Amino acid sequence: MVDSYELILTFLISLLFTYTITKVSLQIGMLDVPNERSSHITPIPRGAGVAIFFAYFIVLSIFHTSFVLEYKGFILGSLLVFFTGVYDDNRGVQPKTKFIAITIASLLIFFLDDLKIDTLGTWFGHEISLPLFFSLLVTVIAVVGFTNAMNLIDGLDGLSGSVAIVIFGAFCYIGFSFQDMFIVTVSSLMIAALIAFLLFNWHPARIFMGDSGSLILGFTIAVVAIKSIAYISITAVLFLTAIPIIDTITVMVRRIQRGLSPFNPDKTHLHHKILRWKGGVDNAVVMIALIQLVFSIMGLALYKQPDNIVFFIFVILLILSFSLLDERAVARERVWITKIRNITAVFVKRHISKYIILFALVLLILILFYIKLTVH
């Protein structure tokens, strides 16, 4: 069980480390220089993921040593992903290097901790179990995919931290409901560390979490999600982690539609579109966090339902999200509306006007005939 003093200690350590990093980031070369896709215009310190991870990891190691010893793969994988992110924040690494590091971390939790996706759930009354090889493949794809998805949404002040808090909060509820103290401990300590970080990261941000933060958040959420499959349907997890998944899928589909690489960076992410719509970073972040909260509540409400039904609902919402946020679709709709208006105007001008005149003449004759009959 997590005691309140553990959460307070995690919060204070994260607060202290985050403040320290903002002061020394220039000396250690951890600055985020803005580019054409950035929401800031001046260099901002980054690497607050160090503070988040250290606060969480220190308290976990001191007060929950049993978890550290039991989940060796998770601990080793977390350290590998974290230090890869730190090196990327400081010197920069190739995407391939990060992919390899996360893949190795996935293998560690699979083989050392037996944390794996070995089922696709119950579809039409039949459970779909995965053989070992396919279980390994699906687990690696899920962990690598979600870790990178969490990295991709880190585009606005306070966004990744806010979304992560909502996601961890949902899993913390699952952990309490089913008495899984690993899920409860990891989730609640992460929430405490993130709240302290958000005091510095809320718009206008004084520091960013960097890849050291977004990668470790994605990896940790992925592990907690896999652990929760023992209690909830695998498709319900899609709702609990919806925003990063929906954003990544829709962005990659749009890029492919334009003939670009799905990994080509641009400004078509969910947060870019909502920022243009709402016109303020704070409003956009709060709205996205609330959307994730709605998805999480839906996931918690649907986790006992058959996977085919839950997955169908998720796909419908995914398609709706894609349509609502697809600027090209909106532009096409405007073109079609304009065409319909023009065609209608031409038709009225060429044909309807003649019929109106004829109808008016016939109506006038009938009125005159009626008047004549009533007079006589």
What is the strand and helix layout of this fold?
Layout: H1 4-28, E1 31-32, E2 44-45, H2 49-63, H3 65-70, H4 72-90, H5 95-112, E3 119-123, E4 126-129, H6 132-152, H7 159-177, H8 181-201, H9 210-228, H10 234-240, H11 242-257, H12 270-278, H13 281-302, H14 307-324, H15 327-375
Helix pairs in contact: 1-2, 1-8, 2-8, 2-9, 4-5, 4-9, 5-6, 6-9, 6-11, 7-8, 7-9, 7-13, 8-9, 10-13, 10-14, 12-13
Structural features, described:
The strands form 2 sheets. This protein has a two-stranded antiparallel ribbon. Strand 3 and strand 4 form a beta hairpin. It contains 15 helices and 4 strands. Helices cover 76% and strands 3% of the residues. The longest helix is centred in the C-terminal third of the chain and has 49 residues. The chain is globular.
Count of runs of 4 or more consecutive helical residues: 15
For the termini, the CA-CA separation is: 101 Å
The proportion of residues in beta strands is under 5%
Into how many domains do the coordinates divide?
A: 2
